[in-house]
Structures are given as structure tokens and as C-alpha cells.
Amino acid sequence: MPLFPEGIREGVLEVWQAQGLPADADLGVMFNYDEFEEFEPDLEPRPALFNWQVKKGGLKELRRRLDPADPRRLPSRWQEKVQRWKQRQHALFLEIHQGFFLTMGVEGWQGFTEALRLLKDDPQRVHEIMAIQAEFAAKLAEWILREVEVDGVIFSEPIAGNHGLLISPQMYADFVLKSYEPILDVLESHNVKTIILRTYANTRALLPVVVASRINCLWACECNPESMDYRQLRAEFGPRLRLIGGIDTDILRQSQAAIRSEIEEKVLPLLSEGGYVPLADGRVREDIPFENYAFYRKSLEEITHQSSVLILRRRRLSEPSSPRDSAL
């Protein structure tokens, strides 16, 4: 069972050092982090393009500036990284799509309202924009996956606030999920088994259409724990929707008893069913005391170890120990 790090925001280590953390402490060693790595190609039009969404000829220019054969699209020192990744002992994830609003070029409120207007007034143009980006991303994914094997692919989707989605689930299915098909075809051809939708805030209403697609894993970040309770999601969607995260980061600001309760009540049942990687749902901030974080990580390590032992015992008990046993 992997125990990934949550990530720590800038300034946290300085605060923790004032609370007693040694300056030379290695958190990865201290808390037995399982390393994982993400990489993302450059998915933006190059050179940069402005107001292309509504300009005449804007989509033709967008297509021209999304060149999947440009080697500058790949992470720096690409071949060196490919060789290193071939020898890796850790999980590696490719982020291949930025989601609906970033694909639509939204960078502020004006762009946001323009994207919503296009959905209503010119849906065909929205379909074309999403198709251009998906075709580009699919070709880029093909290039990347010919050179390196990944453990999963991430579709990032900042499409909600705490009160819910910014577009309807049906719109998401029609405009976004359908556009992902060329990318998903490439992933399937390269035997990528884990397709992750990484969401933010309250995307609960989106999940039925997501589960109906080829996406099979949810990583919900910075969300309201009541609306995105993983126990409820598992009860509704079953193990076919794998889960990453699910531990309320806000709990780490509370008592150690509350932290322990969060882990025991949420993590243990999900671990017993499989298809779950426990993790806090956001990066660690300065107002989380180091003592609480250390207690959380040690408790998580202890409980996941206990769960792994129990799962192994159940498997052994369910397996016949001899040909005679198997015949009974």
C-alpha cells in the first residue's frame, strides 16, 4: 500500500523548525514516504495566443500553435529523464489535460464568462476547441508513451466551487468527456490501466457521468468532506471507481483524537475493500502543527500496515493449502 506525501506549501518547514523540527530533517525518511513523480508536457499554445476563442481565424491559429511534434513540449532534459525513469522504483504519473476551463483559455472572470457564453450561444465552437486540444494531447501522449511507461495518467479538472459544479454534468459529458476519447484510445493502446480525474472542491454531481466513461480513479482535492465523503462514494460506485485522498486536511488542525478517528473511520474500511490510496486532500499549510502532522503520518502508517496484514491473512485463508483441501 503506497503512502504518498501530500506536498508542503512554502514556508511550512520554517514554521515547523521553530516548533522543534531539526533543520536537517528528511521528512521522506522520517515518515517513510513512498516516492511518486508527476510530469506534464507543455499544453499551452506557443507562441502565446490571446482572445483566440472569439476571433475570426482564432481556431485555425490555435491548431497551428499546438504543435505536438515540437520537442520543446516535453519536459527539459527529456532523454535523461526517460533513461532514469526506465530504472525507477517509484510511481510515475503523466498529466495530459488541464480540464475544461483552462482548455477554453480562461485566466480570469472575463474569460470565465466568455466560456459560459460560448457554451450557450456557440456550442459547436466549444466542441471544436475541445477537439483541437484533445487531438493535440493524444498525439503528444502517443509520443511520450512510446518512450516511457507510466503508472497512471491524470486529467486535471478545476471545474467546481464548494457549492457545486460550474457547468452541468450533462454539459461535461457532452463537451468534455466526449473530447477525451482520442486521448483515452491512445492510453488504452499503451495499456495504461489507471486513468485519474483530479478534481477540486465539490464535484459530487459529476461522478455518475465520469464513472460511465473510461476514467476509473478519482483524486478529489481541497474539497468539502461532507459532499465528497469517500465512504459514501465507495458505497454508491463500488470498487470500480478507485480513490486517492479522502482524508480531510482540516482535521490536522484539530486534536490527535480527531485525527485518529478520521483515519480509523475513513481509511480502514476503504483499505479493506482495495482500490484506495489514503492521503490528505490538500497540501500541508503553515497552520498545521508539526506535532499533529507527525501523529497523522505515524497513525496512517500504522493503520495501513495493520490493514495490509489482515488482507494477506484473508487471502491465505481463502486459498486451498493442498490439492486435498481444494477438492473439499
Topology (elements, then pairings):
Blueprint (H helix, E strand, L loop, with lengths): L11 H7 L8 H4 L5 E4 L18 H8 L12 H9 L4 E7 L2 H4 L5 H13 L1 H25 L4 E6 L2 E2 L2 E2 L3 H9 L3 H9 L5 E6 L6 H5 L5 E5 L8 H8 L4 E6 L8 H18 L2 E5 L9 H29 L4 H5 L1
Parallel strand pairs: 1-2, 2-3, 3-6, 6-7, 7-8, 8-9
Antiparallel strand pairs: 4-5
Helix pairs in contact: 6-7, 7-9, 12-13
Please give a quick description of this structure:
It is built from 14 helices and nine strands. It is α/β, with parallel strands linked by helices and 328 residues long.
The strand order across the widest sheet is: 1-2-3-6-7-8-9
Pick out the low-confidence regions. Answer: 322-328
Summarize the amount of helix as a percent range: 40-55%
Radius of gyration, in angstroms, nearest whole number = 22 Å
The main β sheet shows up as: 7 strands, parallel
Shape: globular
Q: Please tell me the overall pLDDT.
A: 93
Describe the overall structure.
This protein is of the alpha/beta class and 328 residues long. It has a domain of 194 residues. Helices cover 47% and strands 13% of the residues. The chain has a seven-stranded parallel sheet. A two-stranded antiparallel sheet has the order 4-5. Strand 4 and strand 5 form a beta hairpin. The longest helix has 29 residues. The chain is globular and about 60 Å long. The C terminus is likely disordered.
